[in-house]
Amino acid sequence: MAVMNRWYRPTVVFCMALALAYATLGHGQLVGRAVAQTVPTSRQQVQLSFSPIVKQTAPAVVNIYAKRVVKSRLNPMLNDPIFQKFFGNNFMFGLPRERVENSLGSGVIIRPDGQIVTNYHVVESSDEITVVLADRREFPAKVTYGDKRIDLAFLKIEAGNVPYVELADSDAAEVGDAVLAIGNPFGVGQTVTMGIISALARTAGGISDLNFFIQTDAAINPGNSGGALVDLNGRLLGINTAIFSRDGGSNGIGFAIPANMLRASVASLEKNGRVVRPWLGLSGQPVTAEIANSLGLSRPTGVVVARVVRDGPAATAGLKSGDVIYAVENKEVTDLESLRFYVSTAKPTGAVRLSVIRQQRQLTLSMPLQAAPENPPRQETKLAGRTPLTGATVVNLSPAVAEEYGFASDQGVAVIKTDQGTPAEQLDLRTGDVVLAINGVEVDSVASLRDLVKEPNRGWQITIRRGGDVLNVVVRG
């Protein structure tokens, strides 16, 4: 029987010899290829523990309880626009019913003034958020900024001089380093688990749009989302975000957002009032074995550039189609996700150094760090009237919009939202769909789309691009 593996976001005995070696040597640097097994010679050796690290970091890890009120009808059929046309929204059997949804997660205090970071999915669409500190004090919390693309949210509580944890340099971490995961799994209360870093620079699709994670075997379960992954120096190495599991429980494959991504987000937030990531201005693909052979490379590594956007950062750096980017600031690039990550988390010096292979020659290019331009202006519009697209919110695509929402294309008119119970939702219009044409007439801007849907029609043929597919949807009048 086939068993489907699934990603779970964790929202709702490590060997004593190794522990002794870590504690005795200070930083977990094992000397030689093997350590002789010896019997502890004193009470102090038997009592070696990671409790000093826990005492240092655990007070900065909080429990987060989020509530949101969801309105629904007793019968989903009553959301049908045709039904509402005859009976109205206040039909006695269609009165909205409210229910409260609760979510449980964890968070980490990163500033003494009460700034907290957690996962975006923990507090998404919440109406009320309560933060409980390790000393059992409770505070209402306010979301100051949310970044759905990387699944991070920043909260603020009105409390001064609270315990906080400093950020580590996650790029300095190595596979095999010991780590502690601290959170509130299953709501049982603050819990500490231990493991090692199983992998670095792990790309794990389906968790967030910027897929670049630290993988650990430290036990992470529902309720650990937004909690801390700390190193043996008591610094925050990552934010626990997801697990890979068949049944929703911990199977030793957990993922954390690296601290360097968090650091870059905080710096951008403080400078710009929002998170602005550098724009690459290029498209490309990972170097496969076949591509490596065709380009004369010794091994498959890096990203081969397919297209360079005119006047973009890549063009300014002098990159060309066919170039292979194999490192950013001497950090190896293995795919587009790692390229984006290292550029996004680079120190704010104005440019990054790219190591490039061009026709079997090694080059070092300097690429400026700049935000993606919003050209043309997005002109966000919610479509109305008697059309199949009514209820959809559309925007003009631009490099800035594509970067913000993670769209593959930066040209055309894209859907960013569809309202529930509207014709657009019934048409199964989705966020990220690009409207190409209406009744055979090309759509090149929000203004042209708005004009086209104003025209009365007995039928509609709507052409959209969804990912790499072009779909033609016919709606009879």
Structure, briefly:
The protein is of the alpha+beta class. It contains twelve helices and 27 strands. The strands form four sheets. The protein has a seven-stranded antiparallel beta sheet with strand order 6-5-2-3-4-8-7. Strands 21, 22, 23, 24, 25, 26 and 27 form a seven-stranded antiparallel beta sheet that branches. A six-stranded antiparallel barrel has the order 9-10-11-14-13-12.
List keywords for this structure.
seven-stranded antiparallel beta sheet; globular; single chain; alpha+beta; disordered N terminus; 477 residues; 12 helices
Please specify the SSE layout and strand pairing.
Blueprint: E1 6-8, H1 16-25, H2 43-46, H3 51-57, E2 61-72, H4 81-87, E3 97-109, E4 115-118, H5 120-123, E5 128-132, E6 138-140, E7 142-147, E8 152-156, E9 178-183, E10 191-202, E11 213-216, E12 228-230, E13 236-245, E14 254-258, H6 259-272, E15 282-286, H7 289-295, E16 303-308, H8 313-317, E17 324-328, E18 331-332, H9 336-344, E19 351-358, E20 361-368, E21 381-382, E22 392-396, H10 399-405, E23 413-418, H11 423-426, E24 434-438, E25 441-442, H12 446-454, E26 459-466, E27 469-476
Antiparallel strand pairs: 1-13, 2-3, 2-5, 3-4, 4-8, 5-6, 7-8, 9-10, 9-12, 10-11, 11-14, 12-13, 13-14, 15-16, 16-17, 17-18, 17-19, 19-20, 21-22, 22-23, 23-24, 24-25, 24-26, 26-27
Structural class: alpha+beta
Low-confidence stretches: 1-5, 12-33, 80-87
Give the overall shape, derived from the CA principal axes: globular
Sheet having the most strands: 7 strands, antiparallel
CATH topology group of the largest domain: Thrombin, subunit H
Q: Give the fraction of residues assigned to helices.
A: 10-25%
Count the domains.
Answer: 4
**CATH hierarchy, class of the largest domain:** Mainly Beta
**H/I helix tally:** 12
Write out the strand line-up for the largest beta sheet, numbering strands in chain order: 6-5-2-3-4-8-7
Gyration radius, in Å? 26 Å
Question: How far do the termini sit from each other?
Answer: 46 Å
Average pLDDT for all residues: 83
